[in-house]
Amino acid sequence: MSKLTDINYIKGVLSRHGFTFSKALGQNFLVNPTVCPKMSEMCGADENTGVIEIGPGAGVLTNELAQRSYKVVAVELDKRLLPVLAETLSEHRNVTVINDDAMKLDFHKLIREEFPDSEVVICANLPYYITSPILMRLLEERLPVKAITVMVQKEAADRICALPGTRASGAISAAVHYYCEPEMLFRVSPGSFIPAPKVESAVIRLNILKEPPITAADEKLFFKEKLFFKVVRASFLQRRKTLSNSLSAGLSKPKAEINEALAKAGIPANARAEEMTMQQFADITAALYCGI
Fold first, then answer.
1. pLDDT tens column, 45-71
2. 60 and 137 housed in the same domain
3. How confident is the model at residue 1 (pLDDT cuts 50, 70, 90)?
4. Structural domains of the chain, count
5. Is this structure's pTM higher than 0.90?
6. Whole domain around residue 243: which residue ranges?
7. In CATH, what number is assigned to the domain containing residue 274?
C-alpha cells in the first residue's frame, strides 16, 4: 500500500518543507485513500491514455493517475509545492510537474509536445473559487481531449450537470452542455481533504462532444464572437425576472427589440431563463443578431 494513503505521512511531508495552506489559492488537498483510486479510474486514465492534472496538491491523486496512465503532466501554480511533489512522487518516472497557471497555460502546445500520439484526459481537484472560469476556459479552447473529470463543490456540480430547461439550470449549465455531456459520478465528504472544507464536494465527468447539440444559424457570429454565450449569461443575469427583462438589462437593448426577437423565436415575453432549452437560446440569438 502506498505511503501516500497515510494522512500523517502527508502532513509530515508538508511540515518538513515548511508548507502552509493558502486561503487565497483555495487549497484543500485531496487525501482520501478510497476517493483517489476511484477518481483516477473513472477519469479514463489507462496505459494508452495521457493525463493532464491541474492542481496536484500533495500528489495523492497524481500517484494514482501515474499507476494507471503511461504519462501524467501535473500543472501546479504554487511553487512552494514543487519540493513536496518531488518527494511524494519520487518513485514515478512517468510524472512531469509544471509550475504554471492553468488560466494562462497554452494547453494546445502542452498536448502537442507531451502527448503527440495518444489520447488525453484532464483530471483535477479544482479550488472552488475558480471552478467556472477554468472549466469554461478548458471547454472553449476546444482541446483534443476525451473527457474532463473534476472535483468541485457539490452545489456547483448540481448546477453544471443540470439540464437546460430545468429549474436547477443556470448559465453554466447551458454553456457546458454546448461542449459536452456532463455526468455526476459520486459525492465526496469534507473529511476527504486537508484542511476540511465546510461543504460537500462531488466528482463530475465532462464527456466532450464531437458536434454541438444545437443548430446555429451563423457559426461565426454564434461561437467565434460568443454571442450565444452572451445571450445565455444575460438571460440568467436576473433569475427572478422574466427573460424579457433580463435580456434587456444584460444586453443593453430596448425591451421592445427583445420582445420582438422573442416573438420571432416563438417564446413568450414572460418566459424565464431556466425554462429555455439549448435550441431556444440559439433561436433567441439568431433572432437578435442574425435577422432570423
1. 999 999 999 999 999 999 999 999 999
2. yes
3. very low
4. 2
5. no
6. 219-289
7. 1.10.8.100
